[in-house]
């Protein structure tokens, strides 16, 4: 499976183009905030034959580029976490909600909504939806083979913000606990910043102390000495 990252827009969102080398199924995860990603994909040689667009959540920096992508790839099936519908529906005024009215965007078309554990078969490529709400009402992750695309659920050394409108901090904490039950060697592709693994984050991410406590795993400061890795 080929996984290519496109980092786009003012918020440096990572969008992911995934191509199954066997079936040639081609999937895009997240869209960026405008037409920048569509322009990138259009200029690839050869341009991808996109089968599906899977959204991790509906913040404008992840879902705001849907309309130009659907114009370029009208046959691509677009999939939204079902619980994310309220956030998706406010895309036309979401920029204003966040104090940046120029980032309000049209909604685009949703072909399918998914719930926890749903599997989407894209011409032989299997994507499993893992619901991890908290950053937004329906934020989720897509597990494809040994890859886990987590949107703004988890970052290398950090976690998604929960001080936004419609965020829920306690819910995000529970979602992270559930996510860290998945195999530690899954390759984590966050919506911003570098890749990591679940095992690396469980061992060292300063925002996962509640998960370590529940599992009886020592804090990094206990592992790395009295001064502590995190100062
Ligand atoms: Zn977000």
Please tell me about this protein's structure:
With 231 residues, this protein is an alpha/beta fold. It has a single domain, classed as 4-Layer Sandwich (Metallo-beta-lactamase, Chain A). Helices cover 26% and strands 26% of the residues. The protein contains nine helices and 14 strands. It has a six-stranded mixed beta sheet with strand order 1-2-3-4-5-6, covered by helices on one side. A hairpin with a 2-residue loop joins β7 and β8. The longest helix has 11 residues, at 169-179. The radius of gyration is 18 Å and the shape is globular. Residues 57, 59, 62, 135, 152 line the site of zinc ion.
Describe the structure in brief.
26% of the residues lie in helices and 26% in strands. The chain is built from 9 helices and 14 strands.
Query: What percentage of the residues does DSSP assign to strands (E)?
Result: 25-35%
At CATH level 2, the architecture is 4-Layer Sandwich
Q: What topology, given as strand order, has the largest sheet?
A: 1-2-3-4-5-6
CATH superfamily: Ribonuclease Z/Hydroxyacylglutathione hydrolase-like
Largest sheet: 6 strands, mixed
Order of helices and strands: EEEHEHHEHHEEEEEEEHEEHHH
| Number of domain units | 1
Determine the N-to-C terminus distance: 39 Å
- Broad shape: globular
Cofactor: Zn(2+)
Domain Metallo-beta-lactamase: 12-192
Organism: Plasticicumulans acidivorans
GO molecular function, one term: hydrolase activity
């Amino acid at each position: 499976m080929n996984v290519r990252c496109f980092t786009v827009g003012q918020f440096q969102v990572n969008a992911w183009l995934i191509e199954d080398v066997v079936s040639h199924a081609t999937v895009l995860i997240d869209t960026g905030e405008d037409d920048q990603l569509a322009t990138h994909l259009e200029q690839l040689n050869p341009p991808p034959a996109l089968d599906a667009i899977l959204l991790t959540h509906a913040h404008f920096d992840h879902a705001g580029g849907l309309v130009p992508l659907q114009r370029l790839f009208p046959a691509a099936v677009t999939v939204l976490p079902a619980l994310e519908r309220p956030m998706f529906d406010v895309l036309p005024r979401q920029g204003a909600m966040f104090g940046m009215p120029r980032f309000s965007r049209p909604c685009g078309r949703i072909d399918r909504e998914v719930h926890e554990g749903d599997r989407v078969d894209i011409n032989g490529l299997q994507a499993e939806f893992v619901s991890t709400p908290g950053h937004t009402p329906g934020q989720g992750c897509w597990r494809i083979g040994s890859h886990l695309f987590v949107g703004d659920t988890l970052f290398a050394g950090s976690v998604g913000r929960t001080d936004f409108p419609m965020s829920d901090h306690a819910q995000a904490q529970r979602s992270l606990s559930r996510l860290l039950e998945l195999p530690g060697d899954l390759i984590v592709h966050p919506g911003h910043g570098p890749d990591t693994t679940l095992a690396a984050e469980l061992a060292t991410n300063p925002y996962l102390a509640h998960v370590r406590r529940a599992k009886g795993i020592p804090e990094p400061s206990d592992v790395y000495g009295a001064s502590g890795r995190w100062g």
